[in-house]
Amino acid sequence: MAAHIPDEKIKAIKNASDIVDIVSESVSLRRAGRNLLGLCPFHAEKTPSFTVSPDKQIFHCFGCGAGGNAIDFLMKHGGLSFPEAVGDLAKRYGIDLPTRKMSPDEKKKLTERETILTLNGNAVSFYRECLISEARGRQAKEYLLKRGMTGKTIDEFNLGFAPDGWDQLLRHLREQKKSARMARRAGLIVARKKGDGHYDRFRNRIIFPIFNGQNQPVGFGGRVMDDALPKYLNSPETPVYTKSRSLYGLNRARQKCREMQTVYVVEGYFDLLAMHQFGIENTVATLGTSLTADHVQTLKGFVGEAGKAILVYDSDQAGIKAAQRSVAIFQKGLIEARILVLPKDHDPDSFLMAQGSDDFLKAAEQSMGMIPFMVESAIEQYGLSIDGRVRIVNDLKSAILAIGDPVARSLRVKQLAERIGVDETVILQKVRRTALTPSKAVWMPGRQDMNKAAPAPIHGETYRLERQMVAMMLQFPEMINDVERRRFTDHFTDPVLAEIGKGIIDHFAHAGGDIAGLVSRWEDPEKKAVVSRLSLIDEHWDRNGCMNLINQFAASIRRRDNTLLKSIEAAEKSGDENLLAALLREKQQQARSGMKKQGNTNQ
Questions:
Q1: Nearest in space to 124 (alpha carbons), one of 85, 69, 162, 75
Q2: What is the pTM of this model?
Q3: Distance, CA of 357 to CA of 87 (rounded, Å)
Q4: Whose CA, among 206, 366, 596, 599, lies 20 to 30 Å from 312?
Q5: Which of 108, 159, 106 is nearest to 132 (CA)?
Q6: Which residue did the predictor score with more confidence, 328 or 88?
Q7: 336 — pLDDT class (breaks 50, 70, 90)
Q8: How does strand 283-285 pair with strand 308-313?
């Protein structure tokens, strides 16, 4: 896609797109009057503050302040550039963007991200052809069938095969005139340690393409078919693929996750394929990494405020430790999570193949909450001797501290005290000491504490009046002419509100009441957030209320004028020449604004 997209095409895309459809792909929404509410995908919250307006075609989170239109949502949530977000919407709604032969300069402007996605798409096709090929893929296909994979599963998940040999994919890409440098940037090939040239990253492996929420191939996983090491090999991190944010199978699971308000989280590719094959389609898999805060935020958006995650781990000690590591992440992410540890020597794949989906779902019904699971695991490991009880409390204190709700935390402490026979106050003391020790505080990896809001700025009465004026203009646009005629925005003291107020007047004069289009006037996230917030705050406007506000604002201007005159007199009496000069300049500015206003009235 060329960097420039005609304004008329962008407008057509905005008019055709439905923000509810777009946001609903990643956030579970429920009706709340004229708007819809859900848990914000951009910060941790227990009570929904993320609001979507079908009428205005905008979103706003009253918790973290994120806001904008459909394009802004795709950019922020999907990490897309503006042209990518516009292109995504154009494809969804069948709008053709202008195509023409690009100049060399325009080709250079193609984003690195778009180029990598194209190369990954070529690789998916190559690996698929290799699997289907009778000569190349017979052994790989036999392996997949032996593992219990059906032809339907193989096709639906675009499984492939990377043939043996050092440069099979590389030669294929060269034949298509693809850049080796960009293929290396995509993680498909690796530079040789000695000498020039490259070789294929994946060789003689089953290939699992990894897709993002827009069904674009962002990376790959590869598994050997024998006992060679490493058993699994994943793509490195690239501009389109981040392990801490990606989940295998999410593109196919999200609809079922929303419907069931439950998501199963497994660890392996074959575990996920087996789950889907046995009809448990609300399943995702981590990609060779522990669950992260970003993963939890993503899952929370799909299952909603009443939803839950069930972590399905192997029965070995590594699986139990993985479950324990996830406790703090889910507690901080404010989403209910349960642990399902399968019988000995079983993973989800083997259990389903041996027992079937009915037994699996029965076991899932008996899954334990995260803290009870940790308690029972610790008791099994340490026993209930005096030394064992000390170790149990030490193991659990950080997890208990991570519980955000103080009532829930108190109840968990009480349960632990009763279960192991230790005084409740002693456990609380241990937990409080942990809270006071910075090195042991429980934080979400890679993030600040999302439950700790930044201090709210202190604003005076003038700011509050200006803010209400902007909200009135957005929600009761019949008053915009009055505001413009009296040039009230010239008297705004807050520069952001002044710019937004003038932008509203100009926008409504030329484009009518298109709030989603108004948001696009500014690239600054702060201004987008102000517009979306003031458009959606719950205020009931009528003509009388608007006139009362206008009269209040006019009175505040007069009070400021009187205050300024008194300040000038005081500066003259005190002999403060610098202050006097500054106050006189301010007075002259007000006079110029008044002359403009008078001239405009006389026209």
A1: 162
A2: 0.69
A3: 40
A4: 206
A5: 159
A6: 88
A7: confident
A8: unpaired
**pLDDT exceeds 80 at position 142:** yes
What contacts 166, CB < 8 A, 6 or more positions away? 199, 200, 203
* Domain range summary for the chain, segments of one domain joined by +: 7-107, 111-234, 250-366, 376-440, 461-602
User: Residue 336 forms beta bridges with which residues?
Assistant: 308
Helical H segments across 337-385, by residue range: 348-355, 357-365, 370-382
Q: In terms of CATH architecture, what is 111-234?
A: Alpha-Beta Complex (3.90)
Distance CA 164, CA 415 (A): 56
Strand arrangement, sheet containing 232-234: 160-162, 205-211, 217-223, 232-234
Backbone dihedral angles phi then psi of residue 212, each to the nearest 5 degrees: -90, -175
Distance CA 593, CA 487 (A): 8
- Chain-centroid distance, C-alpha 262: 18
Residue (of 282, 83, 82, 123) closest to 218 by Cα position: 123
Q: Token pair for residue 551?
A: 């009269």
Token pair for residue 206? 């089953």
Could you tell me which CATH class the domain 461-602 is placed in?
Answer: mainly alpha
Rounded CA separation 339/325 (Å): 12
> What is the residue whose two structure tokens read 């899954």?
367
- Looking at the DSSP bridge assignments, the partners of residue 368 are 339
As a three-state string, the secondary structure of 534-550 is: HHHCCCCCCHHHHHHHH
CA gap 32, 19 in Å, rounded: 16
Q: Taking each helix axis from N to C terminus, what angle separates 386-401 and 317-333, rounded to the nearest 10 degrees?
A: 40
How far is Cα 459 from Cα 11, in angstroms, rounded to an integer?
36
Output the pLDDT for position 583: 65
Q: Can you give the pLDDT at residue 585?
A: 72
Query: How buried is residue 97: exposed, middle or buried, by Cβ count under 10 Å (0-12/13-18/19+)?
Result: middle
Question: Tokens 């479950």 map to which residue?
Answer: 323
The rounded distance, in Å, linking the Cα atoms of 468 and 463 is 9
Nearest to 196 by CA among 224, 167, 217, 227: 167
DSSP string computed for 74-105 = HHHHH---HHHHHHHHHHHTTPPPP--PPPHH
Nearest CA to 493 out of 537, 457, 462 is that of: 462
Residue by residue, DSSP assigns 439-507 as GG----TTS--TTSPPPPPP--HHHHHHHHHHHHHHH-GGGHHHHHHTTGGGG-SSHHHHHHHHHHHHH
**Cross-strand partners of 310:** 264, 338
- Confidence band of 549 (pLDDT split at 50, 70, 90): very high
Residues 202, 209 contacting (CB under 8 angstroms):
no
In the chain, the amino acid numbered 246 is S
Cross-strand bridge partners of residue 369: 338
In terms of phi and psi (left: phi > 0; alpha: psi -120 to 50; beta: otherwise), the region of 417 is alpha
CB proximity list for 231: less than 8 A, separation 6 or greater: 223, 224
- 530: tokens are 């102000």
User: Do β-strands 198-200 and 189-191 pair in parallel, antiparallel, or remain unpaired?
Assistant: antiparallel
Provide the token pair at 483.
């505001």
| Topology at the third CATH level for domain 250-366 | Dna Topoisomerase Vi A Subunit; Chain: A, domain 2 (3.40.1360)
Residue type, 4: H
Per-state percent for the chain, helix, strand, coil, to nearest 5? 55, 10, 35
CB atoms within 10 A of CB 141: 20
The class that CATH gives domain 7-107 is: alpha beta
Please give the Cα distance from 254 to 302 (Å, whole number).
Answer: 6
pLDDT band at 602 (very low <50, low <70, confident <90, very high): very low
